[in-house]
């Protein structure tokens, strides 16, 4: 039954659904504009969302490891645009360390094998790919897959070593393959973050090694303005009823909340998988936009050993016969990070991550130990002291790690994804045109939603994203 919004007492002017970076920054932006009647509604017992860590390691040797986001990607070049996450990291003294992704040792099925020449060739091929995408934008050419782009710009990997090098440049960032990703959007995603020539922040990657957790940057920021009555923890939203006069949110425990407006910041994975119901059902244009973007998965698999027997560089790369099989390695037991921690981890992405999420821990552990034995044939790989990996895709609060833009996601889809339906607004990392996937994308989207909604509430203009009811083909098929 429709809710009679006029006759119920309101809990707040705005409900902010989700307490990740987007939700916290949306709240701060509302507050900055004088709107303080809001409540952040969060399923977990803390703020941060995908900024999430765990204590890991044997008794007496525990360290904090980041299960989700780990880097400030791009900082600032000269007086160009600064990454706002870097600003918060500095403001709240979060400990970060420069991570040189080119400081790498390469391995394959024969053990250590120096194919760094090929590795740097693949880095150049990636740059060429992004330049090619820029040309397509200038010429208004259609999008294509990253694979098409690589081939047309002359990169055709034929060996496991070349494929692993390509993986490092591409999948390790987008969490999907070049075949699954937009050539154009993946390129601007890279350039707007890393390339100062187009307004990007620059090439640095700062890795958080703060033992309070990377999440400190956003939790400490929240503490500067958020009052206890402006946040509800352990409150899982199951249904959102919306109209042109208000929004009503039902929680798992039966409580319900009423407000003039709501901003959902749930991941597109959550929206795609019906973890939250909408009444009335979302319009077709909205549903098509939600289903047309991808929630990709990026998985870090952590090991702690009694002692370090692996590479001295910051990074390691393993080329298997199978592309994407336990490829990218990082050591925390490095003089720049957490020396003596005994922690090393490997990352998988995309379909491979979904595969391992369905396996028992014991099997994944055995497989990765097998890979380590292949990488280090002369070492008897010891039994790890601890082992762990998060299952982001199966987690109903996330359903993956971050969004990736497929080649069939068009600019009208993007606008439709971001557009409000009645008084329900949509925000989150995936709504960011330039920075989808990244923490700074979440930040800028939260700021945008908070500022625009404050204007709207204060009776100024209610600027709305243009909705395209039907995303049509500019050159329809004639069959
Ligand atoms: C493994 C991994 C690695 C990453 N690495 C990086 C990196 O190095 N650098 C970088 O810039 N970005 C990285 N990212 C991406 C970055 O973490 C995200 O872009 C960003 O945190 C998204 O913020 P958000 O607020 O939009 O969404 P979220 O953080 O997902 O916030 C949404 C909130 O909603 C809550 N929620 C969900 N469902 C419900 C419900 N039904 N009821 C109530 N609450 C609910 C969730 O608990 C969450 O707190 C990574 C992400 C992952 C997972």
Automatic annotation (TrEMBL):
Residues passing through the membrane, by range: none
Coiled-coil-forming residues are none
Q: What is its EC number?
A: 1.4.3.-
**Which Gene3D superfamilies has this protein been placed in?**
3.90.660.10, FAD/NAD(P)-binding domain
Q: Which UniProt keywords apply?
A: FAD, Flavoprotein, Oxidoreductase, Signal
| Top-level taxon | Eukaryota
- Summarize where FAD binds, as residue positions: 22, 42-43, 237
Q: Which residues form the Amine oxidase domain?
A: 22-449
Listed cofactors: FAD
An example GO biological process term is: polyamine catabolic process
What name does this protein carry? Amine oxidase
């Amino acid at each position: 039954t429709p809710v009679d919004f006029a006759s119920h007492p309101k809990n707040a002017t705005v409900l902010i659904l989700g307490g990740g970076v987007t939700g916290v920054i949306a709240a701060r932006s509302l507050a900055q504009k004088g709107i303080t009647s809001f409540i952040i509604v969060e399923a977990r017992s803390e703020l941060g969302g995908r900024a999430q860590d765990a204590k890991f390691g044997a008794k007496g040797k525990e360290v904090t490891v980041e299960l989700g986001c780990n880097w400030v990607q791009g900082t600032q070049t000269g007086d160009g645009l600064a990454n706002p996450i870097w600003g918060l990291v500095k403001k709240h003294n979060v400990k970060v360390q420069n991570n040189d992704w080119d400081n790498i040792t390469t391995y394959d099925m024969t053990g250590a094998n120096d194919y760094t020449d090929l590795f740097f060739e693949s880095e150049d091929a990636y740059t060429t790919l992004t330049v090619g995408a820029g040309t397509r934008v200038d010429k208004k050419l259609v999008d294509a897959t990253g694979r098409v782009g690589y081939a047309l710009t002359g990169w055709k990997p034929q060996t496991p070593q070349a494929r692993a090098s390509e993986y490092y440049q591409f999948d390790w960032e987008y969490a999907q393959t070049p075949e699954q990703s937009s050539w154009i959007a993946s390129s601007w995603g890279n350039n707007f973050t890393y390339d100062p020539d187009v307004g990007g922040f620059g090439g640095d990657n700062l890795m958080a090694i703060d033992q309070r957790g990377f999440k400190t940057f956003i939790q400490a920021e929240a503490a500067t303005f958020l009052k206890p009555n402006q946040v509800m923890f352990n409150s899982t939203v199951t249904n959102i009823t919306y109209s042109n006069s208000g929004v009503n949110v039902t929680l798992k425990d039966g409580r319900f909340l009423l407000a003039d407006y709501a901003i959902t910041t749930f991941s597109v994975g959550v929206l795609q998988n019906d973890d939250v119901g909408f009444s009335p059902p979302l319009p077709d244009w909205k549903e098509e936009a939600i289903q047309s973007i991808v929630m990709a998965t990026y998985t870090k698999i952590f090991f702690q050993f009694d002692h370090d027997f692996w590479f001295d560089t910051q990074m390691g790369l393993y080329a298997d016969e199978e592309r994407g099989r336990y490829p990218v390695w990082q050591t925390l037991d490095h003089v720049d990070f957490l020396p003596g921690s005994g922690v090393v981890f490997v990352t998988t992405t995309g379909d491979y991550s979904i595969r391992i999420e369905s396996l028992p821990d014991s099997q994944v552990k055995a497989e990765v130990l097998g890979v380590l034995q292949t990488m280090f044939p002369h070492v008897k790989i010891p039994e790890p002291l601890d082992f762990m990996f998060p299952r982001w895709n199966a987690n109903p609060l996330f359903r993956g790690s971050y969004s990736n833009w497929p080649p069939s996601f068009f600019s009208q889809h993007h606008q439709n994804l971001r557009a409000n339906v009645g008084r329900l607004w949509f925000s989150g990392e995936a709504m960011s045109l330039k920075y989808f996937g990244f923490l700074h994308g979440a930040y800028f989207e939260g700021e945008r939603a908070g500022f625009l909604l404050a204007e709207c509430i204060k009776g100024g203009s209610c600027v709305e994203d243009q909705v395209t009811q039907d995303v049509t083909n500019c050159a329809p098929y004639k069959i």
